[in-house]
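U., I forgot to send this yesterday:
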Amino acid sequence: MGQKAYRYIIVGGGLAGGSAVEGVRERDANGPILLIGGERHLPYDRPPLTKKLWFGKKEVKDIFLHDQAFYADRGVDLALGTVVAGLNPGAKLIEDTAGNTCRYDKLLLATGGTPRKLDVLGADLHGICYFRYLDDYLATRGKAQPGATAVVIGGGFIGSEIAAALNINRVEVTMVYPGPYLVSRVFPEYLGRALEELYRSRGVVIEAGESVIAIERRGDKLGTQTRGGKRLESDILIAGIGISPAVELAQSGGLQIENGIVVNEMLQTSSPEIYAAGDNANFPYQALGRRMRIEHWDNAVNQGRHAGRNMAGAGEPFTYMPYFFSDLFEFGYEAVGDVDGRLETFADWQKENDTGVIYYLEGEKVRGAMMCNVWEKVEDARRLIKQGARMAPEDLRGAIQ
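Result:
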């Protein structure tokens, strides 16, 4: 990075960081920008890592947010494969691990999250993949030959998606997770258990309510031992057990931290010249009247762009309601709002074609909606949530079709 000064520095080479470049340039065509990324790759879309790349619907070259020329044409300096280790808000300086310092006028922390690691014997063995990055996909894709065996630890979004992707590619998959059923933090029980049966019908072995207590190497394979006494041997071992917000840099600068980097409605941190966006940002979700931290693609894209615009002087509150989506074999969904499996739910379901909408309710108000095999209805769900009207479950029938 050297000793240069920039009007805008973006720390984080993911979707939020790449989108912030777009936001800045919407307002400021010439202000010097430095984009720093810890990975060696240009900013890319993460969803295809567990979805379309596995199904032949995209190639790796298709997942990048922009090509090299985009950044060059917009006067953006790139520092990829670079880790920023120090932040001094008073002096408006950042420092990388090589000791290089750089000055900013406005700074965006789009540092995302880091995969959680297993806390068991053998958790750091070579070959265990804590699936999150493009390099993880590339390494796993090379091993995922027909007839190979895989153990997937985790029954949340990443675990369920990568297990389906491997199965479709004729890998023999066993899933191990402590929850009572699939994606239990989001799905109501009846849906989670129905999806488990779908997975079993496709040949996936489900070990629900199980936890891993040790991992060991057995020649070319990895052995997973569960608390219930199972010993599972596999060619591929993937742990998708969530992420932790990457807040270390913000902490080094004394910024306010609480389940992520705390920002206001303008996405400013406790130091007004520093913004945060994406997986690491704890922001006021205005439609729900509460703070949230959201780890999904749509939030990273829109929050990153919005932060870039505000860094360049837009002064606009972030009011967008991000959605997320997933594809699990033939079951797909889009969801928006607070879809917490602990909330009361009401399913407006059509059994004849296995489609429907699940409403998540709190005090008879719709707080979230999941459209299952129902498409292009996210905006309808947003309107319903924003209305904030009390609705009895029977009043929700047909509210979103």
